[in-house]
Structures are given as structure tokens and as C-alpha cells.
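Hi Y.,

Following your request, here is the sequence exactly as I used it, all 575 residues.
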Amino acid sequence: MEGFAEHEDRCRKYGMGSVRLLVVVGVAACAAGSSLNTEYIATWSRLATHLYIGVIGALINTSTLPFRANVALLLGGLAAVVSDVWWFDLTLGCYLLKTTVGDTLAGKVDSAEWRLGLAGVVGGVAAAAAWGWSSSEVGVGDGVPVADAVTAYGRIFVVLAAVQFVCEYGDGHLEHLVFFRHRYSFELLTAAVLLVVPLTPEERRVVEFDLVICLCYRLANYVILMTWAIRAPQLLMLIFKLFGVVNYGFFGRRFMRVTDPHVATLVLKASVDKGDCVERRIATPAWSPILSLESIDGERWRRMRHGFSTVLDLLSPRIHELSAITQRQTDELLKTGVEIGAVAITRLTVGIFLEFLFHRRDFGAAIDVLAEASWEWRKEIACKGKGRLQSKQAAVTTIVALIRSEPELWSLFGEEWADPERYSLLLQPFLISPAINTCDIMVGIHRAGKSVSLDDAVRRAHPFPILERYVADPIVDESGKVIIPGDTQVLFFANDFESTVGWPIFSSGRRSCAGMHFARGYLTVLRSSLLGHPRFRPEAGHRFSGRNNDRLEWGELVYLICTVPVAIFGRSKQT
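Below is the corresponding structure, written out as C-alpha cells. Let me know if you'd prefer a different format.
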């Protein structure tokens, strides 16, 4: 699974590559002797075929669809090529053959689907050759003598197959060079063929069709990367950039994205105010009926932070018990033989913290109620869909009943535990947040491997993709220079710090994670017990990630597009 930097690089590759290629296609279409205008105006079905071929190539290369769907699309593509060759000429057949030969020589036929495609092309060529040998004609339709077909398309086939080989070999073996990785090589070499080689009308048509199909392929890749295969943080980043422009243009409030670790640390230490952005407009409503310590602001945050300190005073002396409970429950889970996927990790997390909080092991249906509710909260917090309120309310009822049964905890606040400001002190930081975040963290640990430390693995896929602070007064550096003006909303994207050694995974300043000592010991035991185990597959069953750990489905994308802009640009929700 690619990270943010790789995803961003691919978006640039296909986005800017489409623009460059569109220019080349436009120049080719305007040149004397171009067949593009006449071909597409007279036979629109050819353009539809080229679009289809480009799209299925993008779908297969991005692994968007399952294997059977890809095979069906390939069969449709082969049928479209055969139909085009039958009714028109050998142009598309020449294109397909040169692409297959070039890819094969470059070692880029690297998936089961493309190997089946290769077999289909080889079979088709063999059938055409057999037909031509027996009838002396290929291309069907009115028929083209074999010698004439070789003369008309043989030279351009060799030239374009060589171009395909160079581009694909460079992409596969010299990808550290932007010239090959972003496919400048294709535009340059194809333009050279058009400008330098004296082409016949048949040869020019093959080159022009190659350009158009490649353009369709790049555009399809870009659309897929920005929609079907997009991850929520990337799309949210675009929305927040627009939000910053609107805020500054209409209300005069600055909106800054900070990428320097030193400046980010100064901001986190200087301000405890989240401001009027992500937490207030999206996270706080999504957490309801819980009041999340991570999201609320102002006096309510100060009251709840004081209450949370009271809870920590009670639990901190027993912190050593958490590691022992984690080890025992993890060992018991491994003995069951079940797959350690996202569902199992969620139930394990809830079970561990329930035993730690309430000094017992038998919780009946409480684990299932809380684990199921965590999926509803994570879905809404990650902007993937509306969480079921009934499931959330059941979790609240369960936790209040459990607190009532535990004398030590009940003595802290008594009947006040029924208030959201009280029950949230246990439900959010000790149960729901760990259930949500542990799944993402385990995916990061699994991908990083044993050679990467816990902190570095978390930085690479931090469960909090966005942090924010409102800076009321200017922040100055050691030299007295203003680095953040006053009245500024500041955003930090975790992806910007994934390679920063020493960047605190539990944040910094007065709003850093108050339960970090609990989390670190618990995660350390999970990592040592699960990493490397053959049944440890945290990606399995993973849903509603705020990170890059699962795919944003179409329904989730529609929900995100319909709700996030409304929340961001609508009236602010006070906390």
C-alpha cells in the first residue's frame, strides 16, 4: 500500500502527464496529414474504443477491481480490437502488438491479468497469421494482402515497439529519474517519431492512435487516484486549502499549513485552542454523544481535563497491570487460531482495557457492544458515513452500568458519571479511541516490519492525520522573528512529519496525549507479541480508516463530498 508521498507523486505523474500529452495530441491533430479529426468525426466508435482501452489499462494497473472483473474487461478490450480491425484497418492491431512486445521485453507483464492479455494477443496474432497464410489476406473486411500489411505497418511497429521498450524499461529500472518515472520519455520519443521519421498515412495513424490511447490511460489513472483510490486525508487537504482561501478572502483570518517540525512544536506548545476548523466542525459532532478530550475546546476542555487528571490519579498506580493484561489476553487470542485482523484487534483492545479498568474478566456482551460501537464512531469521524446512534447510545449505557458496578471508579463522581462530561472520561480515551487507533497503528507496524521502531512505525501511519491549533498572538522564534502571525488557524498534516526523527507521536504541549504512558506500554506488548506471527494480518477487515489503510469506496466518497464541505463552509459549531 503506497504512502502519501508515493500517492502524491503518482497524481503529479498522471495529472501533469495528461496535460503534456494533451498538448502533443493537439499539435499532432493540427498538423498536415493528421487522421485524428477525420477518423473521430466520421467514426466516433474508434474514439470510444480508444477510451475503453485506456480506462481498462488504468483500472488493472491500480488494482481497483477484482481479478474476474479485470479479465472480463480484457476480453471486452480484445473483442473491441478485433471488431476495429475487422471493420476498419490494422492500426489498432499494430498498436496492441507493439505495446505487448515492448512491455514483454521490458519485463512489465507483471500481473496475472496482463499475462492473460499477453496470451490473448499471441493467440490473436497466431490466428491472424494462420488466416493470412491460407488466404494471403489479413485485416478481414475487404482483405489486405499479407505482403502489403507487412509493408504498411512493419516499420512503424518496430519503431513504436522500441519506444515502448525504452519507456517501460526506464519506468521499471530507472524510476529514480523523473524523466522516466513521469513518462517525459514517451512524449519526447513519440514527438521525435512524428517530426523526424517520414511517415506514411498508415504509419502516422498508428502513432496518433497511440497518443490518444495513452492520453485516455493517463486521464483514467488520474481520476482513479483522485476518486476511487483516494484516501480521505488527501481529499480533506484539498478541501481545507480551499477553506483557507475563502476564510482569508471573506473574513481576513489567516490559514496556514505548517511543515517545519520546529515551528510545529512551537505552535503546539504555545496554544491549547483547536480553533474553528476540523475538530469543531467535523470531529466534535461525529463523536457525539461522547465529548472527546481531543476535540473540545475552551472551558469545557479545562473542566474535563481536570476530571481526567482525577481518573489518572486513580489508575496510574496500576499502570504496570496493563502490560500484563495485554500479554495474557494476546497470548490467549493467538492460541485460538483465528486470523488477527481488524475485527479481532478491536475486540482484543476493548477486552484489555475493560479488564484493566474494572478488575474482572467476564463482561458478557459488553465487549461486543463497545467494539461494534467503535466501528460506528470511526466511520463518522473519518467522514466515511453516518454512525448509527443506536449503537453509540448502547455503548454509553454499557459503560455507565459498568462504572456503577465498580466502587473505586463510582466513588470519583457518583451520579455525575451519567453526564457526558464524566462518562466520556473513560469511554473515549480508554475504550473507543484505543479501539479505533490501534487498528491503524497495527497496520503501520505490520508494514514497517521488525527493523522499524514503534515510534517510527506510528509516524509513518499516524492515526491522527490532521492536527490543528488557533494562534491568537504572534509566535516568534529564538531570534525574535515572527514565524506565525496572530489570528491564524494552523494545520499540521501527519504525512509531513512521517520522516521526521524525534517528532512526538503523542503530540506536544498541554494538549498532548494525557494517556501516552498507558498507550506506549500496551502498544509495545502488542507489537512484540503479534509482529511476525503468520496470522497477524491487521489490514484484513479494516474499514473506515482516517489513514491510508483501506480504500475509500464510492458510497463513502459521496458521503465525504456531501458532508465535509457543508461542515467546513457552514456555520461554526460551538463546543
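Strands lie at 137-138, 144-145, 254-257, 466-471, 475-476, 482-484, 488-493.

Thanks again,
Q.
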